[in-house]
Amino acid sequence: MSLGMTLLVALRALRRNAMRTVLTALGMIIGVSAVIVMVAIGNGARSSIEANIRAVGSNVVNVNAGSFGMGPVRMGAGNTTSLTPEDAAAIREEVPGIRYLSPGVNLRTQIVSEATNWGTQVQGAGPDLAQIRSWSTEFGSFFGEQETRTAAKVAVLGAVVRDELFGPGADPTGAMIRIRNQPFRVIGVLTRKGQAAMGPDQDDTVVIPYTTAQRKLLGITHIQSIMLSAEDGVPLDRVSTSITNLLRIRHNIIGDQDDFMVRTQDEMTSLFTSTTDTMTWLLAGIAAVSLVVGGIGIMNIMLVSVTERTREIGLRLSLGARDVDVLLQFLVEAVVLSLVGGTIGLALGFGASYGVGRVVGWPTLVSSDAILLAFGFSAAIGVFFGFYPARKAARLDPIEALRYE
What we know:
Blueprint: H1 3-16, H2 18-56, E1 60-65, E2 68-70, E3 73-75, H3 85-94, E4 98-112, E5 117-125, H4 129-132, E6 137-140, H5 145-149, E7 154-157, H6 159-166, E8 176-179, E9 182-190, E10 205-209, H7 210-218, E11 225-230, H8 236-250, E12 260-264, H9 265-308, H10 310-318, H11 323-359, H12 368-394, H13 398-403
Parallel strand pairs: 5-10, 7-9
Antiparallel strand pairs: 1-11, 1-12, 2-3, 4-5, 4-8, 4-11, 6-9, 7-10, 8-9
Helix pairs in contact: 1-11, 2-9, 2-11, 2-12, 3-8, 9-11, 9-12, 11-12
């Protein structure tokens, strides 16, 4: 019997018990849609993290004070005072391939304007920060070398801080604010960057010269971090190695007890996305269990179908049908049942992913790999769980089958 005729017979058999067919396919529908949604959420999170990391800037390398150990005690980023402006100057002068560099000092405090106040992060930075992060100004301008050298009391506001202190969309250039009772003149407002990857809102910040933060606000001479951007085409791992070697020499470090940490943009991306990848496949694996349950349901119904149609099978065999024809008939029924459920599940998964993105606000991204995985898995389940009932039907003895009541 031709494959087309076999398919027609299979469709008629499935249509004969429409309700049972729908209920059997429901397991595949739920399983496929669950896999699509879970993978879409994971891919969306990964894409969002990568976009946020790219928003930090291109070819970025971060050097943080920390990773200091003394016996069994180890301290994380920002807990040591060994990083200095002189280190930053040495990196700029001695490490090849550096385009921009900005020393950093951070603190969190209350910002006061004439009308209100707002608690936020204050970033002490160099004038290159705007170029490193590709961060333009909506109003006014960023500070320069002159303001940094003289520790000028000037500030550039993030969009959120501007909105809270002066109102949404306002241009506060020239206005005065107070940071720890020190008067600062607003010289610019940064364009919006949005939420950082696994971190706070990038627009909820105030940027001032790092020298001003050191001398006027904190009373320190060290810095907490150095952010730099490499030239295009310069390998970040090579820059990272050069910085590490230079700082180890400058800090007289012997052994592996570094008092600083160097992280490249590639390492940060890998760190964040590896976590989301693990969670994505974990959730997809849990969702795939329902596909297996759906496959068991298909096998159960196919076994019932073989039992119900024993006399029909015996009649076909006695009229000359080959064992392979009977096997193919029931196998095609199982595969069709699985693929129909998978197709409906794909459509439902697309709709559910879109709904999750709109209602909950989570980023979702349905990839072609997820579609192929879910659809291929459903087809494989149809073949795997349909083979045993089909083989059982093909091995029936025609005489005994005709006698079956």
